[in-house]
Design goal:
This is Nucleoside deaminase. The protein has 152 residues and is an alpha/beta fold. It has seven helices and five strands, in the order αββααβαβαβαα.
Length: 152
């Protein structure tokens, strides 16, 4: 059984990263990679800042963690402020990360069902703070949001 207070505390790291991303002109999605209770890395969506098509919160976080052995990923939890897109879902599956904590899935519902089908434990915190971050961003910059999720 998971402890929602622990999940919320871990989510705070991803939220802080998301806020940094927005403050630097980007999309407010953040992530943290946690192994054995320790935050190994954080990241945020840097598509705007780095002019990159692939630096979403989760992929930036994985890059910041550096190369890790499979045994480390097997004990990891990916914490993300927003339901992961197909690309980030694929990265989670590729590295065998067994657990994902999601801040919210109201503004975007990504690959959660596929993660569950593949045996990943998915916990949605339904954080009002995460919803507010995305709702405000989408209202302010709908074109940038649509670009991020591959829509017109």
């Amino acid at each position: 059984m998971t402890d929602i207070s622990t999940d919320t505390a871990l989510l705070a790291h991803a939220i802080e990263a998301a806020r940094e991303g927005r403050a630097t002109g980007g999309i407010p999605i953040g992530a943290a990679l946690v192994v054995d209770g320790e935050v190994l890395a954080v990241g945020f969506n840097k598509r705007v800042q780095r002019d990159s098509p692939i630096l979403h919160g989760e992929t930036d976080c994985l890059a910041n963690a550096g190369r890790l052995p499979a045994s480390v990923y097997a004990r990891a939890t990916m914490v993300t402020t927003l339901s992961p897109c197909d690309m980030c879902t694929g990265a989670i599956l590729l590295y065998g990360i067994p657990r994902v904590i999601i801040g919210e899935n109201r503004t975007f519902y990504g690959g959660e069902d596929y993660l569950r089908e593949r045996g990943v434990e998915v916990t949605v915190v339904d954080s009002e703070e995460c919803v507010e971050l995305m709702t405000e961003f989408i209202a302010a910059e709908p074109e940038l949001w649509n670009e991020d999720i591959g829509e017109e």
